[in-house]
Structures are given as structure tokens and as C-alpha cells.
Design a protein that fits this description.
Shape: globular
Organism: Pseudomonas marincola
Radius of gyration: 18 Å
Oligomer: single chain
Helix content: over 70%
Protein name: Membrane-anchored protein
Number of domains: 1
Number of strands: 0
Pfam family, one: DUF347
Largest sheet: none
Structural class: mainly alpha
Distance between the termini: 20 Å
Number of helices: 9
Keywords: Membrane, Transmembrane, Transmembrane helix
Length: 260
């Protein structure tokens, strides 16, 4: 690919480059999804059904804003990710708490849903790479996959931490170790980058959820007792700061490009 074509593809792509900052914000957003949902349900007393309806409506608006953009814009993209994280948590919690579906069943259900999503995406677009997420069908598949990964991660994290009784800290360590194995498989043994990206993306959700529960829950429940408010506020501030930095970086690159 020529430099001109590579530059054009970069401008058309609707998702950010996979850098260290990408993974930091992703993990922070998963934690906010867990603690933010709990804050709305229990601290503000909205309850699970009302919170689910309200946040789903906000998510639809955020996704509409993201879809209308003609290129990657940091605040639009990461706003959508944080809201997907919250709604993904609420979907899982609704199935478990409202309808009595077991965590084992929800984990299997979302795993199958993700496989179906990936299969349909690949059959339609012949690629699952995020290096070419342009406007249109490919972007719709991308966001559907993101939503399912968040719901799956919530179910898997709760399954290990609560139902299997491993505790939040141990669950977080196990998922962190799994992410490390995936990184080693990619960087040392050359495992396919698309496959390792999506495996890591899935694993960071239960890792972030377990970290969120560990930080926010009381000591009696195996947490550090920081509370949902404190945890959500700290992580949101960091996310906003990093997204602000990415926005500044993007504007600086655009100014440099316009000068050339």
C-alpha cells in the first residue's frame, strides 16, 4: 500500500489505533461500566429496569453520533464504549437478577452470540480486522461485537468471582494472567493479530469488571471498600484526561498534515 493510500485508509477508519492508551482506556471503561451501573441502580435508587431503559436510550444516541461521524473522533468513540460497557453490564444483570438465568447459562449464551456475530461479520466482510472499520455494514458488526463482548465479560467475571467463589481479586489476577498469555502468544510466537486482539478484548472486560468489584465492594465482601461513587469518579477522570490527550494529539497531527 502506498503512503497516500495508507493515509487515506487511516482517515477513513472509525476506530483508534491499538496502543497502550487504547488498552488503558478500554480497561478503565469496563470498570466504570461495572461500578457505574451499580451506582445508578443502588446509590441513586433507579432500580435495574429503569436504569436499563435510560442507559439504553443514551447508548442509542451515542452510537448514532458515532455512526454519523465520517472518521475517528476520540470523544465520540470512547463515549460510545463507556456506554456500551454500562449497557452490556445491565443486559447481563437483567437476565440474571430479573429473569433468574444462571451465570453459567448467560456465559454460554453470550459466547454463542459472539461466535454468531463474528461468523456473520466474516461471511459478509471477509475480515474481522479493526484496521478497516469504515462507515456502513462493517461498523455495525463492530459495535454489535463490542456490545456482546461486554455482556459476555460481565457474565464470565461474575461467574468466577461470585458463583465459583474465587473472589474479585483472584478473578482479576486470573484474567490478567490470561491476557498475559495472549500477549506472549502474539509477540513471541506470532499468533494471528486479529485473533489475539479479540481474545484480549474479551478478557479485558471480566478483568476490568473484577477490578471494579474489588475496588468498590466492602471489605466484608472481599473488596477494598472504595465504593461505586469513588471508583467511578476516579476512573472517569482518568478516562476524560486520556481522551483529552488523544484529541489534542489528533488535532496536532492534522495541523502538521495541513502544513505539508
Amino acid at each position: 500500500m502506498s503512503p497516500a493510500n495508507a493515509s487515506a485508509n487511516s482517515l477513513l477508519n472509525k476506530v483508534p489505533a491499538v496502543t497502550l492508551i487504547f488498552w488503558i482506556i478500554k480497561i478503565l471503561s469496563t470498570t466504570v461500566g461495572e461500578t457505574g451501573a451499580d451506582y445508578l441502580i443502588f446509590k441513586l435508587h433507579f432500580g435495574l429496569p429503569l436504569t436499563s431503559v435510560l442507559m439504553s436510550a443514551v447508548l442509542v444516541l451515542a452510537i448514532a453520533i458515532q455512526l454519523r461521524a465520517d472518521r475517528y473522533v476520540p470523544w465520540k468513540y470512547w463515549l460510545a464504549v463507556v456506554l456500551v460497557s454500562i449497557v452490556g453490564t445491565l443486559i447481563c444483570d437483567s437476565l440474571v437478577d430479573t429473569y433468574g438465568v444462571s451465570l453459567v447459562t448467560t456465559t454460554v449464551l453470550f459466547s454463542v452470540a459472539l461466535l454468531v456475530t463474528f461468523s456473520c461479520w466474516y461471511a459478509s466482510e471477509k475480515s474481522l480486522s479493526i484496521l478497516s472499520i469504515y462507515r456502513g455494514r462493517r461498523e455495525y458488526f463492530y459495535w454489535l461485537a463490542i456490545l456482546v463482548t461486554f455482556a459476555l465479560g460481565t457474565a464470565a467475571g461474575d461467574l468466577l468471582g461470585e458463583e465459583m467463589g474465587l473472589g474479585y481479586a483472584v478473578s482479576a489476577l486470573l484474567f490478567a494472567a490470561a491476557i498475559g498469555v495472549v500477549a506472549i502468544a502474539h509477540y513471541l510466537f506470532g499468533l494471528n493479530s486479529v485473533a489475539t486482539f479479540w481474545i484480549a478484548y474479551i478478557l479485558t472486560r471480566p478483568f476490568g469488571a473484577s477490578c471494579g468489584d474489588w475496588l468498590s465492594h466492602s471489605v466484608a465482601k472481599g473488596g477494598l471498600g472504595l465504593g461505586t461513587v469513588g471508583t467511578s469518579e476516579i476512573f472517569l477522570v482518568v478516562i476524560i484526561a486520556l481522551v483529552g490527550y488523544l484529541s489534542w494529539q489528533q488535532r496536532a497531527a492534522q495541523r502538521l498534515e495541513s502544513v505539508r
